[in-house]
Amino acid sequence: MSINKRREFLKLSALAAGGFLLPSASTQAANWLSGAGATTHKFGLQLWSLRDDLPKDPKGVLKQVAAFGYNQIESFEGKQGMFWSMTNKEFKSYIGDLGMQIVSSHCDFRKDFERKATEAAEIGMKYLIAPYLGPQKSIDDFKKAADEFNKCGEICKKNGLKFAYHNHDYSFKKIDGEVPIDVMLKNTDSNTVFFELDIYWAVTAGVNPADYFTKHKNRFTLCHVKDRMKNAVATDQNSSCVLGEGVIDYAPILKVAKANGMQYFIVEQERYDTATPLESAKKDAAYMKQLKF
Q: Any idea where the Xylose isomerase-like TIM barrel domain is (predicted)?
């Protein structure tokens, strides 16, 4: 085993020892199927989970999402825009009739952001989110991005919204001796720029999500909830799976998150091996309904 692989293995082992990774998926599945700890909290779906189906029939797919039990929607900006060939108000009205609300959307924050903030504000959205920066050449590149985020944060504030950044695993990998997400947290305005912690990507990077929730209270106000496959090697990035079938023990993680300012719990599904996207979304909703935190 190489030194880097061993380090990642030890990080994941520490997560397991801390109680945030299940010793086996069967324990989690048993609790889920037994209905232990049922709760009535709200939870949402990142529509990227249905990226192949949604463009073909936005209204029909959204109707199925509502039937699965999702209360909230986090959209993304595809070819049909954040509102899927509907106006912002048409979209709000349609999903409202289905019992859902759009709370946030991923978008291109470098293009026509003022208009997007205005449209989001008109329908009561809470956040616009930068979904991806990608690995950068230097830590200064992340500092420059933080400056851009501060400007977006001011635009959002002016419109009654908040701005947030969604991480991937690269956000936790040191560059020039510093951790990018730490630099982003330090160099952004805590009153206008927030963070959406993708818990899967944090765990994949060998990070304990609870450490960030407690150290940076009220900065992580949204999160992505998705599981990591059992027996996935530490270096395997593409190992997400249906909630309840993997190794991440979400109840203790989300309890800590909620106690430290987390407001929105958004399911995201990226990989489909055992079910179609819609089947996966349905299974994920069933898991979230039974999760107590």
A: 63-290
